[in-house]
Amino acid sequence: MTGHSNEEKLEKLQARYDVLQVLTAIANIKDLTEKRNHEIAQHYLEEYRDKIPNYIKLYESGNYLTYSGDLYSERQIIGTVLNEVSSALNYDQYLRSIDERAAVLSGSSLFAKPGTFSYRNIKLTPAAFAPLKGNVLQADISNGVITDTQSHTTDIIAVLLIPLTCMSLIMPEKENGLYSLIKPTVKGQKQTIFTKISAAFLLCILIEALLYGTNFIIAGYLFGFGNTERLIQSVTGLIGCPFVFTDMQYFVVYLLTKLAAYFLTSLLILFLCVRLKKSSTVYAGASIIFGANFALYLSIDAQSQLSFFKRINLVPFLLVTPIYREYININFFSYPVNIIPVTWMTFGLSLLSLCVLTMVFFCRRTSNSSRQKTFAQFMASRIRLWNRYPVNLLGNELYKQLMENKVLIILLIFALIQGYSYSLMQYNPSLDEQFYKQYMKVLNGELTIEKMEYLKQEQEKFDKAAEGLRKLGENYAAGEINNAQYTVQSQYYQEILQKQKAFSRVKEQADYIIEQRKNSKNPYFIYDTGFGLLSTAGGNRMDLMSSIKICLVLIVCISSIFANEYSTGTIDLLHVCKNGRGKTFASKLLTGLIIMLILYFLTYFPDFYFILSNYGIGGMNAPACSLQNLSALPQNISVLQYFILIYTVRLFAAFIIMLFIIAVSLGIKNSFYTMATATAVAVIPIMICLFGSAAFEKIPFTSLLIANILFQGNSILIYNLCFSIPLSIFLLAISYRKFCGIHTATAKYHELSNISS
Q1: How far is CA 223 from CA 76, 85, 142, 208, 234, in A?
Q2: Which candidate, 307, 135, 97, places its Cα nearest to that of 229?
Q3: How many CB atoms lie within 10 A of CB 604?
Q4: What are phi and psi of 387, to 5 degrees?
């Protein structure tokens, strides 16, 4: 439709959409008739009775698809474009609605108090959009701009790449003790850290160029960008932007803001690297900072007095779009201050402060002998798990990992975070939920004739109440009863009908049971809300959040178990000791297993306990197929057995990830690069799944940690079993071979044999 006016586009799209609506109605009538749902089919037939004869031949020919492979997708595409064109055409009306809404709100007693933030904000809003009046939006392709600038996958990759690349500038040299040689040299302090900061900035530019260059090519190839000189308000989702930007100008501003956010992130990581000794503590510190920012961004309401911490936050800085998408003012002592200058002021002050602090702490001269004990060292020296240094291998490895490598502190911090998260959980069931629970207490168990009769009686009661309320409304409209009489008499019917929404869930479960009986299964009535939360029903992704948490902390705690011996060179001493190979390997592996079990308990127990303690455990012995999202499971597996199964699978997944981290650390021999590799393999796919990419749920580590997806199709389960069990054996064998130096010893034996011969 290039070259047409908005009015012409709207007319053609509306005509096309109307045709697709009729064709969709014909398809629905055909489908419903085949399923013997004649009542709804008749409804469609009556609604489109006059139009169906004109399009029945077109439907039968199938020559109505242009942009997709099925009718419903075609209708959705045309509908989306139609909405875009309509929004562009009605932009003046949108601006007028802002003025009208401001006038209404300023006259409201709730917002009309002069001197308050709300009053001042209402007065400023129309003035902010005044420069946009009279602008004409050109409806064009939006998908290209959206794909290029709003890809969560790109954001996740960037958030993980920047910390890892910045850590690589400092931590390998620091952990190998090279700074004691570098700092005393002529250019070993200011010039060195300035060069590293400059390198971090160049890396940010490179990462941004690679990621968004790739996005630009993909978006341009798949969708195109349309006219890049049109106003940005014509792009779907950006109509509320209060700035006069063209698409190209917006893209430039977007990239500059993104670069500032990347550089801020890199300086934050460099500062942590300068202040902390080990890669594991830097990784843990960065995870806590990003996790805290993410939690603030999600939990704080945009209208609350704490909205400053939602807006001035690493998450919107890195996403960028929330900053420019709409007109936002921050409450600064009851005065509205626009988000844009505050954001750029925050960038400037933060970048300057972090640059100065990083350089100062890097150049500070400290002596290891005179340095005061840090809090962690003080705690490690006071908190003794043993009265003396352990003499057994397992005790020694536990002491090294928990105390010297600060894993105990990391576990305590994680436990505090989990405890705080648990304290924030609230059980506030809605009225509908309470009614649904009451129904399930009555119906719990197998579907019987008596229960079917009970459901029939309840349905008749609702039908009579609805009919009575309808007649009452007719009497009121006819003037036969007054308002007071209507209010009193309707209350009786409304009290009955308030349970109708909960009853519809009960009916849905009854229909599901009847349908499953056709497949030789016998599901039970079960109060499924709590079980649904644990089995990711209804789009709940508690499993993904738990998977991310256990992976991140496991990477921090396990990466240094074997890598430290290689980075310090003590591995050569261990190999010549009596128990320095196989027994030491077993002790280290058991240490990792103990830490993994503690993390597993801390990760999964709070959610599991909260849900079961509030929603109850009734129905644990019912068939698992009673839950609609578990319909693929066989009849003989109970709900209890299912949960034992998935939590066992998750434990096995955590064990495989632990083995993977150990194998990588033995191969790379460096804790920093081990964490980088483990993050790329284990964490990134889960984070991408969290933002809606279901394709990554089926890859091995992710599907095992989620666990629920394994039982939604036999092929996924078989594939993961065939992959994960041999993988765990391989990782264990290769780790043992690598640590114990079997191949090295064999090579040296052959070398000595050749020399002697």
Answers
A1: 16, 17, 8, 21, 16
A2: 135
A3: 22
A4: -80, -15
pLDDT tens per residue, range 322-353: 999 888 888 877 788 889 999 999 999 999 99
User: What are residue 335's DSSP bridge partners?
Assistant: 332
Q: At 387, which helix (H) or strand (E)? A: none
CB atoms within 10 A of CB 488: 10
- Identity at 553, one-letter amino acid code: V
Where are the domains positioned within the chain?
6-89, 143-366, 447-517, 545-754
The residues near 461 (Cβ < 8 Å, ≥ 6 apart) are 496
Amino acid 393: pLDDT: 82
Judged by DSSP in three states, 251 sits in helix
As a whole number of angstroms, the distance between CA 672 and CA 284 comes to 12
> CA-CA-CA-CA torsion for 271, 274, 276, 281, nearest 10 degrees?
60
* Token pair in block for residue 576: 């010549």
Residue 626 per-residue DSSP state: G
Name the token pair of 633.
């499971």
d(CA 294, CA 549): 13
Over residues 391-419, the pLDDT tens digits come to 578 888 888 888 888 888 889 989 988 88
The whole-angstrom separation of Cα 706 and Cα 78 is: 36
Residues whose CB falls within 8 Å of the CB of residue 622, separated by 6 or more in sequence, listed in order: 445, 523, 524, 526, 638, 639
CA dist 151 and 693 (Å) reads: 11
Q: Can you give the pLDDT at residue 3?
A: 58
List all residues 6 or more positions away from 82 whose beta carbon is below 8 Å from its beta carbon: 10, 13, 14, 17
Q: Give 313-319's long-range contacts (Cβ < 8 A, gap of 24+).
A: 314/261, 314/264, 314/265, 314/289, 314/290, 317/257, 317/260, 317/261, 317/264, 317/343, 317/347, 318/155, 318/158, 318/159, 318/258, 318/261, 318/262, 318/265, 319/155
Burial of residue 732 (CB within 10 Å: 0-12, 13-18, 19+) is: middle
Kind and range of the H or E run holding 174:
helix 152-175
Question: Which residues on adjacent β-strands are paired with residue 84?
Answer: none
Distance CA 474, CA 488 (A): 15
* pLDDT at site 262: 96
66/76 Cα distance (integer angstroms): 12
Structural tokens at position 462: 């609702």
Contacts of residues 146-151 at CB distance under 8 Å and 24 or more positions apart, as own/partner, are 146/235, 146/236, 146/237, 147/215, 147/218, 147/219, 147/222, 147/223, 148/212, 148/215, 148/216, 148/219, 148/225, 148/251, 149/215, 149/251, 149/254, 149/320, 149/321, 150/237, 150/321, 151/215
Query: Model confidence at 386, in pLDDT bands (50, 70, 90)?
Result: very low
Tell me, letter by letter, the H, E, C secondary structure of 526-593: CCCHHHHHHCCHHHCCHHHHHHHHHHHHHHHHHCHHHHHHHHHCCHHHHHCCCCCCHHHHHHHHHHHH
* Residue 454 backbone class (left: φ over 0; alpha: ψ -120 to 50; beta: rest): alpha
DSSP 314: H
Interval 712-753: pLDDT, tens? 655 566 667 778 888 889 999 999 888 887 545 444 445 545
For the cut 50, the answer to whether the pLDDT of residue 385 exceeds it is no
Sign of the dihedral through C-alpha 282, 283, 286, 288: negative
Q: H/E element holding 67?
A: none
Are 582 and 740 in contact, with CB atoms under 8 Å apart? yes
Query: Does residue 66 surpass a pLDDT of 90?
Result: no
Q: In sequence order, which residues have a C-beta less than 8 Å from that of residue 719 and are 6 or more positions away?
A: none
**Could you identify the residue written with the tokens 């790739």?**
214
Q: Which residues pair with 525 in a beta bridge?
A: 445
pTM to 2 decimal places: 0.73
